[in-house]
Each structure stands twice: as C-alpha cells, then as structure tokens.
Amino acid sequence: MLTSQLISPNSIAVVGASENRSKPGGKVLQNLLDAKYQGTVYAVNKKPLNIEGTVYVSQISEIPFVDLAIIAIPAHQCIDAVKQLIEKGARAFIIFSAGFSEAGAEGKSLEKKLVEIINNANATMIGPNCIGIINENYKGVFTTPVPEYDSSGCELISSSGATAVFIMESALLTGLKFSNIYSIGNASQTGVEDILEYMDTHYIPGKSPSVKLLYLEEIKNPFKFIKHVTSLRKKGCRIAAIKSGYSEAGSRAASSHTGALATSDTVIRALFSKCGIVYCSSRDELIAVASVFQTKELKGKNIAIITHAGGSAVMLTDALTSNGMNVPDIPAAFTKELLSKLNAGSSVANPIDFLATGTAEQLGVIIDFCENYDAIDGMVVVFGSPGLFNVKDVYEILDKKISTCSKPVFPVLPSLINAEKEIKLFLSKGRVNFPDEVNLGKALAHVFNSELILFEKVMLPEMDFAAIRSIINSSYDGFLNPDVCRELLEAARISLAKQKIITDIRQLTKTEQLSYPLVMKVIGPVHKTEVGGVILNIINEQQAVEAFTQLMRISGAKSVLVQEMIQGEELYCGAVKQGDFGHVVLCGLGGIFLELLNDTSSALAPMSRQEVITMVESLKGYKLIEGYRNRNGLNKEMFIDIIMRVGALVHIAPEITELDLNPIIANEMQAVAVDVRIRIEK
Ligand code: ADP
Ligand code: MG
Questions:
Q1: How far, in Å, CA of 20 to CA of 43, rounded?
Q2: Ligand in closest contact with the CA of 665
Q3: Ligand 1 atom with least separation from CA of 497
Q4: Looking at the whole model, is its pTM more than 0.85?
Q5: Percentage, residues of the chain above pLDDT 70
C-alpha cells in the first residue's frame, strides 16, 4: 500500500543530510530544492549544516512532525532512526542505504526487522538500497538526470537504481518524457506489484500516465501482478518490461521434456503475453518500444519506408518483414503522379527513395500520398545528413505531418552529430526519435504482435470434469501408470493412439481390433527409448511375439504397451507447474526442432483459443504445420484442440506437476498423442 505521505508529503526529513552534493544525502537535497518542492525540508545531521531552503536539525527528536523520511545513513543505524521518525508522524520511508539483505545474513535480519516496524506503523517503505522516487510533488532521488515531470510521460518502475538511471539517460536523448519513477531496490516491503496496484486503483482516464516501463529482477506475487497489469491494460495503458535473470529454476529436477524446456524465461514470456506486456531484453529495446507507445497507434501491418538512404531502408525492410510486418509494393499505377513530383531517379515502389537531393517539400508530398493510400498503415521516415546540407526544413515538415496525419509516422533521424541541433529542435516539439532503424523495426513488430491479445474470458473446452477430479483424487503422488494416463486423457478428450497393455503374449491375439503395423513399448522404465524399450513397425504376429519377449527381458519391465503405429510428423505439447505462476503450457514441433532449435512457444494455463492459435503460429517451424513445398500440412485444428485441452486439464487438476505428450503424431487427417507422461503431487 502506498500511503498519501509517500505520494504527496507536506514535509520531508532527509536523515543523513549533507552539504556535499556528491553524497546521497547532499544530492537528494539539491534535487528536492532545485525542483522547488513546496513543503518543509528538514536536514538532519549531527554536524551543523547551512543549506538554504531547509530547516536544520541535529537529531530526529528536534523535528516537530514529518510525513516522509528519506534515509541516507548506514544500515545499522536505520532501525533506530525509523522508530523515532514513526513517533514524529512519518508514514513513508525511502531508504537509500545499502548493506541489507543484499549484503548477507546480518543485513537480511536487519531488513526483516525494518519491514516489521514499518508494517506495524501502517507506513510505506521504498527500498532499501534504492535511488528513490520522482513524482509530480517531489524529486526524491540522489542521482541525475532528474527528468521534468510530464503527465503524459512514461512511468518507470525499476528493481535496480543504476539501471533506472541508464534507462533515463538514453531515453531522454531520444525525446522520451517521464512522469513517476520508482526505484524499488530490495523491494522488501513495496514491490512492483504494490506500485502497479496503486497505479491501477488510482488510474484516471485521460489524466494518469498511460505508458509504463518496468525493469524487474523478481516478481514475488504473480497473481497480484497479473491482476493489476491486466486491469491497467484494459484501461488502455501500454506496458513494456525487461525481466532480468534467466535462472534455470524451472528446469531443475525436471524429469519431463516440458520441465526441461520451461526455464524461468519461458514462464516470464508466457506471463507477459498473457497480460499484454511487451517483452524486452535490453534497455535499447525498452526505449524503442516506449517510443512506439508514444507515437500514434499502428492499426495494421503495412509500413511505407520513406528515405534518402538506401541502406537503412534495406535493413529496416529486413527487420520488419522477418518479424511479421509487411513493406508492401505500391503498384506503379498509383504512383505516377507522385513520381512526377520527385527528382529523376527516385523510386516509389516502397521503400520510397527520394534521393539525397530530395527536398522537404517532396517529403511532405510523399507523406501525404501514403496518408491517403489505403494499403499503408504507418510510415517510417529515415532522414539523416551527410553534413553537406541543412535538414532543418525537412524536420519541420516531418513534425507538421506527424501532427496532421491520422496514420503514425515514425522518425528515424540517425545523424546524431551532423544534425545534432536540428534533432534537438525536433525533440523540443515533443517528438521522439528512433536513432536506429532496425531497433525501430523490431520494436514496431513486437508492439503490434504483443498487443493483439483481447483479454477474452477463457472458455474451457467440454471435458468430463467429474471423471478428471475422481481420477486425480484416487491417485497417489508420482508418475501415473499408463492406464490411468489413458483414462485421464479420455476424460479430457485428448486423442491417444489406440493401445492395450499386456503381460502375456496370448493377450495380444485377443485384443480388440488393434491393426498392424503396431508399436510395442516396455512399461516400467521412465525413458523407454534409452533402454531399447520401443519397437516400431511390427507388421505381423510373429514379429509381435519376438518383440514381446525382447521387451520383457529389459530390467524393470512390468508389462508391454501395444499401440497402433501412426504415420506422420512429430509434434509436442506439455505443461509444467511453476509455483504461484500456475502452469505453463508449451508446444512445438518434435524431433530436431525441439532438441536443436528449441522451437517452442508457451502460455499460462488455461488459454483461450486465440492464445493457442498465436502459440502455434509463432513457432519457427509453423510452415511445416501449414504444409511446405511438397509436404502436406498437418492437422492444425486438432493440434490446437489438444493444446487447449492440456491447458484446461492442468487448470482442473492443478495437482499435475508435469504433463508431457511427446510426441503427438500428426498428419493431414489427425493429431494423436502416442506417449504420455503425467506426474502429480498433492
Ligand atoms: P520414449 O519417449 O519413452 O522413448 P515414446 O513412446 O515416445 O518413448 O517412443 C519413442 C519414439 O518412437 C517416439 O518419439 C516416436 O518417434 C516413435 N513412436 C512411439 N509410438 C509410436 C506410434 N504409436 N506410432 C508411431 N511412432 C511411434
Ligand atoms: Mg516420448
């Protein structure tokens, strides 16, 4: 909970204040005063200080009353200070001090005590080990740059103070503006979830900042995170985030394929796509995405590239088209008039290259043409300067057209040295710049694809829910045996190859219509192929007898599974439980696609049909499912159905810790699981 004292304090005490501006306690005072903070500032230090605009006190007891305390003293002195400050009315604390949980066991227990004391007082604590916060009312940070507050600017929440600074530094240079900035440090009391909750519950449409950038090292409460992010997205906010730290926690102790594939990064990607957050993996990417957010919304995939720089246009075309966007040809029939207004040698087929000699006026004509040409949804203008001519008039036209066009126009102004002054002037009009065309291309595609989600209510497919529950309730922890797996899949209506378990070869002949060719597999060992426990393409009874004998000789063999052999390509689907995140469902193509290319996509269960379609279509090997060259396609609908049902099954039976359908064999007619592994834990 963020207290009003944190958001709009009437008074602030800086504990550990200093006249020295290169110390946190000195710098924060300077930032507060420079930004003309309206309330009283107490500068607390045993050593006498003379800082204009502040009230000096030698100790906390001399403060009459205070709302917010900013603390910049050694960790071991913090507890005592906080206790005294609470007595003085303080209900908000920003703790810069390091030396807490990040420093070892002793620091950890100090931090725990601190949180307890602050919680008992119903106060808010930001930090420790942070650079502070910036909002409309005050600039409580000890670093620079200190961006001007702009209510339409980005809100930033960062687990790392240094990273927050680096993000602001690069972002300000590209013209981005900021509103509220929260450096949460160790986040021992106030985490990203709490700040998102505050943003969500205090959101005023048209007034509150709508772009949010997150740099996260930890999501402690995924449930709360999802709730508020989804709500903010529904209110029209746009969110991009970096989640650092690819720990392999998810793949620890995993006995299934899915378990091994579900790294913490997979989970985060699944989480982000569930709630419409644009996943970023670097500061540059985050900034490019934020700049896309600050431009008019792109309504379709078709981009016109307008430039005088051929190389940039080619790189941008590659970046766009390899990420699912289009740079459509503009047929000559439509461009005759346009061409007549450009210099000889210009090309207008898209990319539109109006040459180094192109004029500002011509740029205006081209932009107008694209604005009125229906098959274009947005424009990128790449325009730099080789230092020979002035680009001021070009950037003026660009600025005007960005305002007047209904379609978004993305400026790539790469001449950071040659056109430094002109770019500054352009940015001062409230514009952003994308210095690198490829970063823009990727960001544009990324935003466009991430924001397609509809937040629809997930409808579970029809399944025998009662049977599923009863099977789970009557099973014990561990791997379910093949018969129970089959029953569970039947109840979930997931198709499995026709099969029968036998302990005696005579049972084979008695089986109800299993038709050759058959596959026989040992039951007992978990990984069957590794122990020679899978025999394929058995075409007659004599081979079946031999296979049975061979399989029963394998150490640990209990019985033999006889299955119809399915012809087709291997696909895969699985689910794995990820603590508070719930289940992650993964899908992909089998074989080398899975093993070498790691080509999987993931989503948090349960998934809507649209989510599953996106999962399948975003696979690198999707073309094989669609049909490629002379290869027939696979039954995509049935694959989608299986994935949806896996999501629904683990939702109904959360005791399932791992579920693997590996492989699912698919052809044009069907998609059928041939190997199932399910582990439960109650
Ligand atoms: P495991 O994963 O324990 O080694 P599987 O049951 O997945 O055992 O079998 C190994 C491989 O044999 C599968 O990946 C698939 O290529 C092939 N296979 C298994 N069952 C069938 C089947 N019914 N039809 C066609 N191929 C099969
Ligand atoms: Mg298998």
A1: 12
A2: 1
A3: 23
A4: yes
A5: 97
